[in-house]
C-alpha cells in the first residue's frame, strides 16, 4: 500500500519535557559531562531541539524504498555542534523481521 516504517533515535533532546526527568541541579551537573562526551564520534545528539532530531528530518527527505528496514537511524552531533545521521544495524535477523511482518498483515486482515 506504499507504507514504509523506519526506526529513528532523536538523541537526548534538551527540552522542557527532558528537564522533568531529573531535578534541575542534576542537569547542571550532567551538562558539562554530556558536552564533553558529545565530542566523540557516534554519540547521540544532546543539544537543543533546533539541533537534534536530525534523523527524523533526514529520514523524511529520503525515498523510503532505498532505506534499510533493519537499520536504526540515530541523530548524532560532533563536539563542534555539527549534526549528522548515523545508521546502525539493529540486532534483528531477517527471519524474525519477516515473521513479525507476516503477523502484522494477519492482524490487519482481522
TrEMBL record:
The protein's GO terms of the molecular function aspect are: 3-beta-hydroxysteroid 3-dehydrogenase (NADP+) activity; 5-alpha-androstane-3-beta,17-beta-diol dehydrogenase (NADP+) activity; estradiol 17-beta-dehydrogenase [NAD(P)+] activity
Q: Which GO terms describe its biological process?
A: cholesterol biosynthetic process
Instruction: List keywords of the entry alphabetically.
Output: Membrane, Transmembrane, Transmembrane helix
InterPro entries registered for this protein in UniProt: 3KSR/17beta-HSD
Domain of life from the UniProt record: Eukaryota
Coiled coil feature spans: none
Q: Name one GO cellular component term.
A: endoplasmic reticulum membrane
Transmembrane segments annotated in the record for this chain: 7-27, 33-53
Q: What is this protein called?
A: DHB7 reductase
Q: Give the lineage.
A: Eukaryota, Metazoa, Chordata, Craniata, Vertebrata
Amino acid at each position: 500500500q506504499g507504507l514504509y516504517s523506519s526506526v529513528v533515535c532523536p538523541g537526548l533532546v534538551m527540552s522542557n519535557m527532558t528537564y522533568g526527568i531529573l531535578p534541575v541541579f542534576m542537569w547542571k551537573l550532567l551538562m558539562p559531562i554530556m558536552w564533553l562526551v558529545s565530542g566523540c564520534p557516534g554519540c547521540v545528539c544532546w543539544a537543543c531541539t533546533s539541533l537534534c532530531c536530525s534523523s527524523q528530518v533526514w529520514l523524511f527527505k529520503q525515498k523510503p524504498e532505498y532505506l534499510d528496514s533493519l537499520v536504526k537511524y540515530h541523530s548524532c552531533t560532533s563536539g563542534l555542534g555539527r549534526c549528522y545521521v548515523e545508521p546502525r544495524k539493529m540486532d534483528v535477523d531477517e527471519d524474525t523481521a519477516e515473521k513479525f511482518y507476516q503477523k502484522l498483515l494477519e492482524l490487519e486482515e482481522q
